[in-house]
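Problem 12. The chain below contains 219 residues. Write out its predicted structure in C-alpha cell notation.
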Amino acid sequence: MTRRSEQISLHLNAYLTAHSSPPDAILRELAGETAERFPSETSLQIAPEQGTFLTLLTRIAGARTAVEVGTFTGYSSICIARGLGAGGRLLCCDINDEWTSVARKYWEKAGLADRIELRLGPALDTLRALPEEEAFDLAFIDADKISYLSYWLELVPRVRSGGVIMVDNTFSHGRVLDAGNDNPSVIAVRDLNDHAAADDRVELVMLPIGDGLTVARKN
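Solution.
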C-alpha cells in the first residue's frame, strides 16, 4: 500500500504530490523494498509528502542535531539527515534490528551513514540515558503510541529554545474524534495531544499531512 495523507481525497492527494518535490530514486527504492519485505508493516512508513516536508522543515529550522524515535526501515531518517546543516548528526532510536538493517543499507546508499547513529533498545531507556541538557535542534516521534507522552516528556527538555518537535500519527486514523474508542493506543495519542496543546513550553500546530503531524516550536 502506498502511504498518503489520509484526511484528503485520493484525487486531491494525487494533486498535492504532483505539485510537491518528489522522492528521489533512493527513497523510491527503499519504499519498494519495505513494501516487499514487510507488507504487513508498510503503514509504519511515512508518506512521501511527509518525507519532503521533514527535509524542508529541517533545513528551514537550520537544524544540525536531531533525534528520531522510531526509525523502521529508514525513510524518515534519510529525509531528516538530508536536511541537517554541515556536520549535522542524527540519533535514531529503534528496537528492531531486522527493520533497521534495511535502514543501514539505505543510509549507505544515500551517503548519510557518517551522520546517523543508531541505538537499538527501548527508546525511553536511550532517551533517559542522554544528558539532561538542551542538545537537539529537532526531534521526531514516530514509534509505539503507548509511550508517546513519555517520549514527549523526555524530549522537550532536551530540545533547544527555537528547536522543533514533530509527532506523527496524531490523528490516529481519525479515531481521536471517537470519544467511545477505548483502544489503549488511541487513548495514548489523545493524552499526548491534550498535553502538548496545553504545554506552555511550546507553540504548535497539528497538520493534516499523513495521519496527522503535530509540529511544535520550543519557546
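Discussion. The domain at 10-218 is CATH 3.40.50.150 (Rossmann fold). Students who got a different answer should revisit the alignment rule from Section 12.3.
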